[in-house]
Design brief:
This protein is an alpha/beta fold. 31% of the residues lie in helices and 22% in strands. α5 runs parallel beside α6.
Length: 418
């Protein structure tokens, strides 16, 4: 396979997680008698541009289909994050009624609802029918297309050249990352700004977050790789900030690369200055070893250790007559459960607040997804929180667990009972 970013041949493996179904391909009851599509889940590293990426086995259209079940608005902490983002961007870039905001991967309108509430014209791009419909129910304008340069050109002709483009947790989800970024260079106004949020590769490696590897994530991103990708496609990184979301993320600010123009007596540059934070983080990544092969050798043994810890815990709990249930039918949980080979005999069910997942079954493991009310009804001894990045939120919402002596459990980065 050749690198999606620069075209160089991939030779450095990161991890082989065996085979599994796509992590968001939840099953309906009538599908349990049918075979699932199990495909290899392998991740490699480009030694030219240091883009970490899955090998190609499935198309984006099959992964992000009409029944796509990830809805952002069922996490209260994520909604709060989105509202803070809008407040900060409006303040920093002076957005108002004459501005245009476009969000790529608008999902169910979790973010644009706060833009619309400020009476700022906004548009969402969302290719999955299920989430696009939920966003329209909030009164938002949504285009159901996969974003790239061609879609951007169409939006420009429709008058949607953007002052701000938001792209939260989507840069990792696109197979043709160069065409995707060229779309931003096309749709942004000359003085426009785009922000990308994505889990940071340094956090993934440091905390052994192998469960964030799944087919819908085509890329795993460092600032080093993103800066190179942007420069290749007419964009410049001018600022970056660290976020706590998703176990450690980056928010990268980019602008179009514009030629200097003659203005009166001299050249005039409309671009924003590159902030010191950019070089500081690039230096940190270099010191951590992002551009060395040794940096990537630690994840596979850590994943195997976590798998064994989880299986030992589940088998011991079963031997002791304890009941273990799960919380959060998250994609990362499906990676973990399928890699470890966990089935309903060891994990009875998984509760999730998203009604679009309730009544379905996890891909691969076929563990049933139920409503959170099931927790109080059955009083499990342990609640395995699969989206460990939401542990604080879940433990607050399900504090009742402690009333009957139940305990919360996470498996990543180490098996921990709380």
């Amino acid at each position: 396979m050749n690198c999606r970013g620069c075209g160089a041949h991939l030779t450095l493996p990161l991890i082989d997680l065996g085979t599994s179904p796509p992590s968001n391909a939840y099953l309906r009851a009538e599908q349990l008698s049918q075979a699932e599509q199990w495909v290899p889940l392998k991740v490699g590293v480009c030694e030219q541009c240091w883009l970490v990426q899955t090998e190609d086995y499935t198309s984006a259209e099959s992964l992000f289909d009409a029944d796509y079940a990830y809805f952002s608005s069922y996490s209260s902490s994520w909604l709060a994050h989105a509202e803070r983002y809008v407040d900060e961007m409006v303040e920093r870039f002076g957005l108002g009624a004459d501005s245009r905001v476009v969000e790529i991967a608008a999902n169910d309108g979790y973010l644009l609802q706060y833009v619309a509430a400020r009476n700022i014209p906004c548009l969402g791009i969302e290719p999955t029918r299920s989430t696009a419909a939920a966003a329209r129910d909030k009164g938002l304008e949504i285009r159901e297309v996969f974003f790239g340069r061609e879609a951007a050109e169409s939006l420009v002709s429709d008058g949607w050249s953007a002052d701000l483009m938001a792209a939260n947790n989507v840069l990792a989800h696109v197979p043709d990352i160069n065409d995707f970024l060229r779309g931003f260079a096309t749709l942004l106004k000359p003085t426009g700004v785009a922000t990308f949020e994505f889990p940071h590769l340094l956090s993934l490696m440091a905390d052994h977050q192998f469960d964030t590897l799944y087919h819908e994530h085509y890329s795993y991103l460092s600032l080093t790789a993103v800066k190179t990708l942007c420069e290749r496609n007419g964009l410049e990184v001018f600022d970056v900030s660290l976020l706590s979301t998703h176990g450690g993320s980056l928010r990268v600010f980019v602008q179009r690369v514009e030629p200097l123009r003659l203005d009166g007596l001299g050249l005039h540059d409309q671009s924003r200055p590159v902030q010191a934070a950019v070089q500081a983080l690039l230096d940190e990544e270099r010191e951590a070893g992002v551009m060395t092969t040794a940096f990537y050798a630690t994840l596979a043994p850590a994943a195997e250790r976590i798998k064994h810890q989880l299986l030992n815990f589940l088998l011991q709990a079963k031997a002791e007559g304890k009941r273990v249930a799960g919380y959060g039918a998250a994609a990362k949980g499906n990676t973990l459960l399928n890699y470890a080979g966990v089935k309903p005999d060891l994990l009875a069910w998984v509760a999730d607040a998203n009604p679009h997942k309730q009544g379905k079954f996890l891909p691969g493991s076929r563990i049933p997804v139920v409503s959170p009310e099931r927790i109080a009804e059955e009083k499990p001894d342990y609640l395995l929180v699969l989206p460990w990045n939401l542990l604080h939120e879940v433990s607050e919402q399900q504090a009742q667990l402690r009333r009957w002596g139940g305990r919360f459990v996470i498996a990543v980065p180490e098996l921990t009972l709380l």
